[in-house]
Amino acid sequence: MAASGMSNKAKYECLLFDMDDTLYPMSSGLNLACRKNIEDYMLHHLQIEESEVPKMCLDLYKEYGTTMAGLKELGYEFDNDEIHAYIHGRLPYDSLKPDPVLRNLLLSMPQRKIIFTNADEAHAAQVLSRLGLEDCFEGIICFETLNPPPKSESDDDNCFSGNSSKTENKPRATHILCKPNLEAIEAAIQIANIDPDKTVFFDDSARNIAAGKAAGLHTVIVGTSILVPGADYALNSIHNIKEALPEIWDAEEGEQMEAVIQSSVIETVVLA
């Protein structure tokens, strides 16, 4: 949801949010359930030796950003939609509850707000709906955004038209573009048409934060009070934004900025 009438003196123009373990706490259990589902897929669908699966899953995640990306790089063949459906289709989404506090915070922010996740569109829609935040963001940059299908020109009504041409170097079918790859961060910046120097990036991953800083973004590590390399701020919880970054609501001269919040529900779209 875009705010209108924003002062040109605003320090920040856009807020870029990771989703999983950032908009909700890791204690929800989705993270562990997701890893379990990935390991099950590796075991039962890719026939990887059971004793090797846990370590291989973690090693690929560390080296390539996601285990899925690592499996592709190693030459394993699988359908992207199929593995996403398997991994996310059995997650305990019931553990996610509406978050009216975060919703009010987001709606009070005058800047553009965009989700930037490695997850697929269906998972992002499910999480935002469960949290009651589906109308709080202008758009979503997700797996499909950075990794369009080979034929590429999507006619999905939920996708912005005209943006796909900005991803000039489209990834190969065997290569998945995702955080913390600097190329993925830079692609997101280009797709969303944002100025890194006027954008704040929120993420729970230290390596994603480091990549965001390398791309020129202002950075906030979420889920800890300890600064990590590349982080400008650290938040124990996403609910602490106002205490840590009051300038989101203020003009550079300290005057309060007023967000123009539309009364009708706005559908969050997937940026493509």
TrEMBL record:
UniProt cross-references to Pfam families, sorted A to Z: Hydrolase
Record region (Disordered): 150-171
UniProt cross-references to InterPro entries, sorted A to Z: HAD-like_sf, HAD-SF_hydro_IA, HAD_sf, Pyr-5-nucltdase
Lineage top rank: taxon: Eukaryota
Gene3D superfamilies for this protein: HAD superfamily/HAD-like (3.40.50.1000)
NCBIfam families: HAD-SF-IA-v3, Pyr-5-nucltdase
The name this protein goes by in its record: Uncharacterized protein
Organism: Aristolochia fimbriata
